[in-house]
Amino acid sequence: LGYGNKNQVLGEAVSSALLRQTQVQESAINDELAQYDSLLEAGDSELDALRERRLAQMKKASEQRNEWRELGHGTYSALGEGQHGGDVAKEFFEASKKSQRLVVHFYRPTTRMCDIFHRHLEKLASKHLETRFV
């Protein structure tokens, strides 16, 4: 390779390592191309089955989001609020039974930092529909 006497061995080792790496990448690309080719050659029935599976996944995800919204996910709310107040402990345990993920903020109305934390929880609640924030 013309690296000179002292660097000839090192140069050959580097070039063989590069060759092996490019062969691995080429093999991975060929495998991916073969996968795409098989999809193109697949019959309509296979594509229809793939489409049906994807539609079923999307429908299930939509139903899950609707269920979460019904449970109060997507918003940050205080327990025990309402027209007549309520038993906070009872509402807490009901919420924890219904929701798999629950973020609870125990706060004092007199603590100023709680208001800042409330604002951050409101932002997080709208971004994380899978979790209920109370």
Automatic annotation (TrEMBL):
Domain of life the protein comes from: Eukaryota
Q: List, alphabetically, the InterPro entries matched.
A: Thioredoxin-like_sf
* PANTHER family the record matches: THIOREDOXIN DOMAIN-CONTAINING PROTEIN 9
This chain belongs to the protein called Thioredoxin domain-containing protein
Q: Which organism is it from?
A: Pseudictyota dubia
